[in-house]
Design goal:
This is Biopolymer transporter ExbD. The protein has helices at 12-26, 80-89, 116-142, 151-160, and strands at 57-62, 68-70, 73-75, 105-110, 165-169. By secondary structure, it is an alpha/beta fold. It has a domain at 56-169.
Length: 173
Amino acid sequence: MRTSTTVNAGSMADIAFLMLIFFLTTTTIMNDAGLDQTLPKPCETEDCSTDIAKQNLLSIAINHEGAIMLQQEEVVVNAIAEEVIRFVDNASNSIEGATSPDKAVIQFTCSRDVPYSDYVKVLDQIKSGYATMREDYSKLKFDKPFNELNGIERKLVLKQYPLQLAEASGLNR
């Protein structure tokens, strides 16, 4: 009597399929990390241009050499948050500050040659300035920190201090 030299592999396909299903259902897929940025709403009218009073515009730029310019004057990155607060809040009612916090616009321009890390550092400083102002306002108005506010209170604080950021890239050398 002769024995067969082949192996019955009929159930191998079933086992491979079950293993594939198991690994697909138990594997977690990493999401790409990025900046948490809210994009402006699309323009629904014919004329989308907006006139911004020069007094309400704070210009921040990073040139191709990596120098940070705030209103055409060079500053260090750590000073940006304080300058944003001084400009937007304008506690002294200076002509060099915004007429009100809800009308302040930050114009952030960055050269394409600048490393991404420098761009993020400046953007973090801008957001840090707004976070400080919102925190102070929520403590003054509602006597509690911003992260403890309910939805309505949070909207009121964000309405008082909206981050209006106009970004551009590609400064010429």
